[in-house]
Design a protein that fits this description.
Blueprint: H1 2-13, H2 19-26, H3 41-56, E1 63-69, H4 75-89, E2 93-99, H5 102-119, E3 126-128, E4 132-135, E5 143-146, H6 155-158, E6 164-170, H7 177-184, E7 193-198, H8 206-210, E8 219-223, H9 233-243, H10 248-255, H11 269-277, E9 288-293, E10 302-308, E11 318-320, H12 325-336, E12 349-353, H13 358-367, E13 372-375, H14 386-389, H15 398-410, H16 420-427, E14 431-433, E15 439-441, H17 444-451, H18 456-463
Parallel strand pairs: 1-7, 1-8, 2-5, 2-6, 6-7, 9-12, 12-13
Antiparallel strand pairs: 3-4, 4-5, 9-10, 10-11, 14-15
Helix pairs in contact: 4-5, 9-10, 12-13, 15-18, 16-18
Length: 505
Amino acid sequence: MMETEEKLVDEIAGTFADPAAFVLMAFDWGYGELDDMYPDEWQLSLLRRVGEAVLSGNAGKAIQEAIASGHGIGKSAMTAWIILWAMSTRPNLSGVVTANTKNQLDTKTWRELALWHKRAINAHWFEWTATKFYQIDNPETWAVNSIPQTEHNSEAFAGLHAEHVLVIFDEASAIPDKIWEVTEGAMTTDGAMWFVFGNPTKNTGRFRDCFGKLRHRWSCHKVDSRTAKMTNKSQIQTWLEDYGEDSDFFRIRVRGEFPMSSSDQFISISSVERAKSSDPEVSIDDPLIIGVDVARFGDDDSVIWFRRGLDAKTIEPIVLNGVDTMQLASKVSALAKGSYHTSGIKADMVFVDEGGVGGGVVDRLRMLGVNVIGVNFGGKADSGISLTRASGEKYFNKRSEIWGIMRAALESGLSIPVDNDLEEDLISPEYSFNEKNEIVLERKKDIKKRIGRSPDRADALAITFSYPVTKVMDSFSQDSHEYNPYHDASHSSSGDASSDYNPYE
């Protein structure tokens, strides 16, 4: 008996860098309740990748795997195998498993571990409880805990400091960014492992970022339910017939692809992707408009954006941090009057967010003779302007309105630069309808709370759509007098000057 146990210990120790070998050895595949069962190819592929990462031994670099998938592929079983392998091969491992809801964690993720624990060849090494899975002789120092996540218990994810660390997120799309941020601190341990699984239900958040701007940190893979052995193929065929291959329903639940837009997402990722790949198109009659979003707090940026017709790409935006209102106004004035940055082109109009300290920037620009209009984000939408009247949409305030006009432009050929921050700014805001059926865009402070910063770049671009502008055909206009929102924002010296792009005509 002793010799048999020692042999088992040695064999399992030999799978330290080979989780696939552990899974194939630890369970009685093809017999009993596992009759006609065998790990799926996507599961073995993931296990092999992890083994290769362990063997590479990159000092100070955590193993981070992100799996986006359709329904029913066997990710709960995969989670259980990873826990059993890590616990079996890494003495004094400290781990945490969480999910989007307590019900998901208790009834699926953690319950699946109980089932596979009973089947394991070394089941007698461990004890499973409703909240903890531990090595019998070392329950305090060698364990994985099941912890329901909330932003208020994030400290449970911060205390993972041990020789070996394991973190698993199930249904990761719905786990708050705060939990992700705290978990990152545990990934400083050599050989730490972090696995995130989920259906790609949202186009924003940290799970989406794993496949986007943070892709360089993660090994990212998508699993189509049609390729998994255990999925209900007849149900998938029904969904295909009912919703179509390219529907968001089918993308999320079957293909393991992020939606083109979530139900409450104001601007779709597909619109942004098209705009990034669009070639700039400029007419000689297109006015140069400058939009300025003024920083409200020390960690916000002041952003200056340039647009001519459908071209918001050619002239690079300027991002400033830590400048006061006078410095910002001086910079904008120099740009508006023609500078090296704009290839000498003078601005036909400058729109400035006049909320907060922005009013001071507007006042100073007027003193400097700049053709400027202050835009009050919280003010009433100008529903009489042709840009919104033609669309039939009603907006709660001016900020919601200019974002609506910008959205229409994105869908009609607007060209924007490849900029990760701008992309996140554009796709992050959510929206709702009030009792008057007006579109209400999510507030800046609420967006900042969700994504960790203010969407300054997108707001600067949106401001350029505040009002129609006609190109000034003569020298730079220093006339910045009264503005009539139902007439062009600036006046041409030529009677046949064409007006600015109207996405609703």
